Amino acid sequence: MSIRQLVASLVMLSGWAIPMSEPAADNVERVRQVIGSAAEFEKARRAGRKAAFFCVNCHGESGNSAYDTIPNLAGQNAVYLLNQIEKFADGRRQDDFMSGLIKVLKPEDRFNMAIYYSAQSVNPGAAGEPALVAKGKQTYAAQCQSCHGAQGYGNEKVARLAGQQPVYLKTSLEAYRKGAKDRKDPIMSSIARRLKDADIAALSAYIPTMK
């Protein structure tokens, strides 16, 4: 049993409710269908690039953020990314700026943007202090790998971490650890509470270098 499955079981037994994070079945099916057709994929990618002009100032033209406090979208799984976009639209995730922006986009634009960003390559960060990066690699293998994968690529339900922005990683892990209102996933919170400041610093040094 993976760490995520074990924690989920304990959460269920304790009577806590796990927030629904399953992507909508119709979204999953449509994304898979589009990805499976070269012509449909290219059409969606081109349309998504046009729709993403809303996002360029923060997330970068190719989904590689110019700010280390703002996440990269490039290379995220299209189903996962579309699910997060829909959460901002319906209020399951809350951010005044993001929620307002997403709500003005048509559903088709949201879908195409997810396809576009999933097709972009992530620019990994430069390697920092070797000892810190090495510690981060060990910590990642122990705490993160079972859910996010050995290469950090994630999947339809779990975020890609490889190449992510360092300050964004650090602030997100700290928010999960203290139970911030916008970071309520009980599994992530349970894991983050086990992390010391040095662990978070090490993860934030190592994960951006993953390709």
Please describe the topology of this protein.
Elements: H1 3-14, H2 25-35, H3 38-51, H4 56-59, H5 78-90, H6 96-103, H7 107-118, H8 130-143, H9 145-148, H10 166-178, H11 186-192, H12 197-206
Could you explain how this protein is built, in words?
With 211 residues, the protein is mostly helical. The protein has 12 helices and no strands. It has 2 domains: 23-118, Cytochrome c-like domain (Cytochrome Bc1 Complex, Chain D, domain 2, Orthogonal Bundle); 130-209, Orthogonal Bundle (Cytochrome Bc1 Complex, Chain D, domain 2), CATH 1.10.760.10. The protein has helices at residues 3-14, 25-35, 38-51, 56-59, 78-90, 96-103, 107-118, 130-143, 145-148, 166-178, 186-192, 197-206. 58% of the residues lie in helices and 0% in strands.
Overall geometry: globular
Low-confidence stretches: 1-20
CATH secondary-structure class of the largest domain: Mainly Alpha
What fraction of residues sit in β-strands?
under 5%
Tell me the helix content. Answer: 55-70%
- How would a crystallographer describe the biggest sheet? none
What is the radius of gyration? 17 Å
Straight-line N-to-C gap: 27 Å
Order of H and E elements: HHHHHHHHHHHH
Task: Estimate nothing, just give the exact number of structural domains.
Answer: 2
Count the strands?
0
From the 3D coordinates, which CATH architecture of the largest domain would you assign? Orthogonal Bundle
> What would the average pLDDT be, to the nearest integer?
89
Under CATH, the topology of the largest domain can be stated as Cytochrome Bc1 Complex, Chain D, domain 2
In DSSP terms (H or I, runs of 4 or more residues), the helix count works out at 12
Structural class: mainly alpha
CATH superfamily of the largest domain: Cytochrome c-like domain
